[in-house]
Design goal:
InterPro entries: Kinase-like_dom_sf, Plant_MAPKKK, Prot_kinase_dom, Ser/Thr_kinase_AS. This is Protein kinase domain-containing protein. One of its GO terms (biological process) is signal transduction. It comes from Eutrema salsugineum (Saltwater cress). The chain is α+β, with helices and mostly antiparallel strands. The chain has a single domain, classed as Transferase(Phosphotransferase) domain 1 (Transferase(Phosphotransferase), domain 1), CATH 1.10.510. The protein contains two helices and four strands; from the N terminus they run ββββαα. A two-stranded antiparallel sheet has the order 1-4. The radius of gyration is 15 Å and the shape is globular.
Length: about 100
């Protein structure tokens, strides 16, 4: 949804994902996942990323390699972070 609006979250991690029960009347619990905390989000196409001092912002263990090494921000940045989050969910271990 946010990528369709040219927004890159830049800090997807378990602490920023929220589950909501969609309809308690259903026999099976159906949850909707929403992303919160858009403090580091940016519009696609902006060149600079960081806090203005040359330091990277975000949670290091979820930062995509291309962002860490070259400061490149794109939709793949969020995909990488989501992949790290799913890996943690499946293994129960921090990435």
């Amino acid at each position: 949804y946010i990528h369709d609006r040219n927004i890159i979250h830049c800090d997807i991690k378990p602490e920023n994902l929220f589950l909501f029960l969609t309809d308690h009347r259903l026999r099976a619990n159906v949850y909707l996942t929403k992303i919160g905390e858009f403090g580091l989000a940016m519009e696609k196409g902006l060149i600079k990323y960081g806090d203005g001092t040359g330091h990277m912002r975000g949670t290091a263990r979820y930062v995509a390699p291309e962002l860490m090494s070259h400061g490149i921000v794109n939709f793949g940045t969020d995909v990488w972070a989501f992949g790290c989050t799913v890996l943690e969910m499946l293994t129960g271990e921090l990435v």
